[in-house]
Amino acid sequence: MANKLQNIIGSGIPAAPATFISGTGGDLLTATGSTQATALLLPNDNNGFGTVASGTGAILQDGSPGDECFVANFGANALLVYPPIGQSINALSANAGFSIAAAGKACFIKLSATRWATNLSA
């Protein structure tokens, strides 16, 4: 498989904009906190969790409509993903966490200033 970042740079786009286009990734993250205020702020565009204690979670970074964030839960427990403060995911109430089961994956897409949608897979 070709390296996406190297291909973008190879087309003549400088490294910083190329990284912005291709996105960032991180694996073996550890879920933290038991509330929206104490959850781990997702550090990357693509995030893999290796350690998920019961009741812990992560929070999406605020962004602009069209932004996406991928989350994979390789931990032993369900992972709660919270929207930024005052926002919602799917039809959940504002600030409510969205649960990703162990071994589950979800892609979060920001639709508007206050709503995210997700595509969940097992």
Rg for CA atoms: 15 Å
- Enumerate the spans where pLDDT stays under 50 for 5 or more consecutive residues: none
CATH homologous superfamily title: gp9
Number of domains: 1
| Category by helix and strand content | mainly beta
- CATH topology tier name: Jelly Rolls
Query: DSSP helix count?
Result: 2
CATH class: Mainly Beta
What number is the mean pLDDT?
91
Gross geometry: globular
- How are the strands of the largest sheet arranged? 1-3-5-9-10-7
Per DSSP E runs of 2 or more residues, the count of β-strands stands at 10
**What share of residues is helical?**
10-25%
What is the beta-strand fraction? Answer: 35-45%
> What separation lies between the terminal Cα atoms?
24 Å
Secondary-structure element pattern, one letter each: HHEEEEEEEEEE
Protein topology:
Blueprint: H1 4-10, H2 15-22, E1 25-30, E2 40-41, E3 46-51, E4 57-59, E5 68-73, E6 79-82, E7 88-89, E8 98-100, E9 105-110, E10 115-121
Parallel strand pairs: 1-3, 2-4, 3-5, 4-6, 7-10
Antiparallel strand pairs: 5-9, 6-8, 9-10
Helix pairs in contact: 1-2
Describe this structure in words.
The protein is mainly beta. The chain has one domain: Jelly Rolls, CATH 2.60.120.640. The chain is 12% helix and 37% strand. The protein has a 6-stranded mixed β-sheet, with no helix packed on it. Strands 2-4-6-8 form a 4-stranded mixed β-sheet, with no helix packed on it. The protein starts with a helix and ends with a strand. The mean pLDDT is 91.
